Each structure stands twice: as C-alpha cells, then as structure tokens.
Amino acid sequence: MNLKKLFMSALALSLFFAAQALAAQGPSENYNISLYEVVKVGDNVMVPENTLVKSAVSIGGSVGVAGEIAEDAVAIGGSVVLGPTARVHGNVVSVGGKIKKDPEAKVAGQMKEVPMPQMFSSATDIGSKVAPSALVLAQLFASLLTFLGILALGIAAGFLFPKRVGWVAVSIENAPLKAFLWGLLWIVLILPITFLLVVSIIGIPLIVLQFVVYGIALVLGYIAVSQVLGKKLLSSLRRYNQPMVTEIIWGIILLTLIGLVPVIGALINAVVGTMAIGASWMSRLGEG
Questions:
Q1: Is 26 part of any domain?
Q2: What average pLDDT does the segment 83-111 reach?
Q3: Is the Cα dihedral 26, 27, 29, 34 positive or negative?
Q4: Which long-range contacts (CB under 8 A, 24 or more apart) does 109-113 make?
Q5: Which of 6, 17, 212, 278 is surrounded by the most beta carbons within 10 Å?
C-alpha cells in the first residue's frame, strides 16, 4: 500500500470534513461574524460571563466557559469546563481531558471526549515515590530498551526494506538541508492538521492514522540517517562496501552515543529527527 497516498488522502478528507463542519456551525443571525477567536498555546482560556467570542481553543491547557461561544470550544491536552451560564452554539471537544458541564449550560452541537494514554501522569506519580538512585537505574534501563528497540527496527528494515531505506538515504545525502526544511514544515503542520481533525468531529478517527504515518516516516528516516552516518564512519576506517545492515548498526550506535552528550546531543538528535521526516516525504516514504 502507498503510505504517502494514504496519508495525503486522509489529510484531504480531514480538510473537507473540517470545512463542512465549520460551514455548518457558523453563528446565527444574532451574532456578529467579526467576533474574535481566543486561541492560546500552553495556557488556559477563560470566557467570562456576559462575554461573547467566536471560538475558544486551548492547546496544552483547559477551556473555561461562563459566557457565550458562537462556534466551538476545543481543548487539546486539557479539559473543557462549562459553567451554568455557558452557551456554546457549536461543538465542545476535549482531547486528553474531560468535559465538565453544568446542568444549566447549553450546547447546540456535539460534545466529544478523545482519551489519550495516561502513561505520562502515571509515570510522574510513580517517579515521585521512587528513590533517586532507583529512578536513575530505571532511566538507564529504559534507555537501553529504547536503544535495543531501535537497533532491532534498523536491522529488520535493512533486511526487509533495503530499497526504501536506500531511497531515503539518497535524499539525505543529496539534499540534507532540503530534507531538514521539509521535515520542519511537516512538524509545524502537525498541530493545525490535528486541530482541523478535532473540529471536524468526523475526522477524529483520522488523528490516529496521522500519527501512525508520521511515526513510520520518522522511523524510516532515522534508520536511513543511521545508514548514511554508518557508511561514512566505516569509510573513514577504510572499510568500504559494507552491507547495509552493518552500516545501519554502526550509525545507530553513533547516534546513541551522540545523544548521551548533554544539550548538544539532544539538539543533534532533534535535527536528525527533523531531517528524517523530511527525507521520508521527499522520497515518498522510500518509493523513490
């Protein structure tokens, strides 16, 4: 199956659903179309009583409503709290949180809660109860498992999908800056695309598909970057024409060691990840 075409089709459908949903949820004749939208990132949004806004969106925070919203109330990574005087003429959506609605609150559209894994909050609770030395050992063990997992994926990809890895690697070698810029663009588009999918309601199931395809692009690209780095490392040691799997293994080891360097290692890995995503899209997920 052509994963690139699958993703683009899903994106096109999500945009269509979002356009249809937004058109259908426009404000009634009693509302001023020029009403402003309240959008915050990493902070809560509050619509006070006797206040009318077009829409209220919080990414990384919660939305509290005591006034009126002409369209939608959306919280990504937070909850939506509707007070007794709240009036929402569109949809109410919470991704990773809860919708808390007072019996007196009015919602004209749908109310949708999209659950997210609770592993992060669970990990925080566990971490606060574990001794520092045990926590360090747990982190080292987790890092080792991550390294072994990536190594296993790299070896499997080298044996099962050598052509795909090769095409992505060619994109990285021929145009590394272009790959980085394309990757940066796709990363920036994640939040807007997710927001459109959430607002459309119908497109919510496509959120999972979106992140699956992004994950495939990241993993495939990371393995290709590892192959390129491993090839250069082995060439510097005068070991030419080595098997692709060997190059991948050495590249993953090199990236893992670089990642251990404080600050610089994290920055380099961020650049590598961005370039990996971009190269995957440039090569149509390794189809050439």
A1: no
A2: 90
A3: negative
A4: 109/25, 109/72, 110/201, 112/201, 112/204
A5: 278
